[in-house]
Design goal:
Blueprint: H1 5-29, H2 34-67, H3 74-117, H4 123-170, H5 174-214
Helix pairs in contact: 2-3, 2-5, 3-4, 4-5
């Protein structure tokens, strides 16, 4: 008898959760705690955004080179632009994966922190730890909001890039290139907005890392 689909998803989720718990436990045994893992994952998410920012810029440059193409091999210019679009897509996927990992360890860290507060018998120490947890959680929530906001700006840009590349794939000639030049200015504006949002997220990541490193 086949398991219901919902039960299969639940089993998979529990398995993943169990693997994560085992991973965190194993790391703690060698002195590498959830707080350390969180710092590393925020750093990795920040680096993935920096790489994505560079990749989107590269994709924009190759598209501009294609639109300004004057003689030579048009197919080669198109293939370069397509490669840069694919790299931008991969970079965006990596950003999402990194943010997901930050959220995973944050949940584990905050759950553990809350449980351990309940084990503190002295009221003044318990209140101080509760205050620090609230501050850290508030800073974290601001960080994730900023990260997710920049992440959300990537998909419309990628969609516009894909539309243009598919249109050119079916009509690779000077007339087709001329037809999408009007849309290119809008794409430039969108990428400029995306870069600004990514820079805000990167700054927020640096701020969050500094608060964890300082223990404040």
């Amino acid at each position: 008898m086949k398991k219901p689909v919902s039960m299969m998803f639940l089993s998979a989720a529990l398995l993943i959760s169990g693997c994560q718990s085992a991973y965190y436990s194993a790391m703690e045994k060698v002195g590498y705690h959830k707080r350390d893992i969180m710092v590393d994952r925020v750093e990795a998410a920040k680096e993935s955004q920096e790489e994505a920012k560079e990749q989107f810029n590269s994709a924009l440059e190759e598209m501009q080179a294609l639109l300004n193409h004057d003689g030579g091999d048009l197919q080669t210019a198109y293939e370069k632009a397509t490669d840069e679009y694919e790299s931008a897509r991969a970079a965006a996927d990596d950003v999402t994966s990194r943010i997901n990992k930050v959220e995973d360890v944050a949940e584990a860290l905050f759950d553990e922190w809350q449980d351990e507060i309940g084990q503190i018998s002295k009221a003044s120490l318990r209140r101080a730890s509760e205050g620090k947890l609230r501050d850290t959680r508030r800073n974290y929530e601001q960080l994730v909001r900023t990260m997710r906001r920049s992440e959300a700006r990537m998909e419309p840009v990628l969609t516009a890039m894909k539309d243009n590349m598919l249109y050119l794939k079916h009509n690779l000639n000077a007339q087709a290139i001329g037809a999408i030049k009007g849309e290119f200015a809008s794409l430039q504006t969108d990428i400029s907005g995306l870069i600004k949002e990514m820079n805000r997220s990167i700054d927020e990541s640096n701020k969050f890392i500094s608060t964890l490193d300082s223990g404040s």
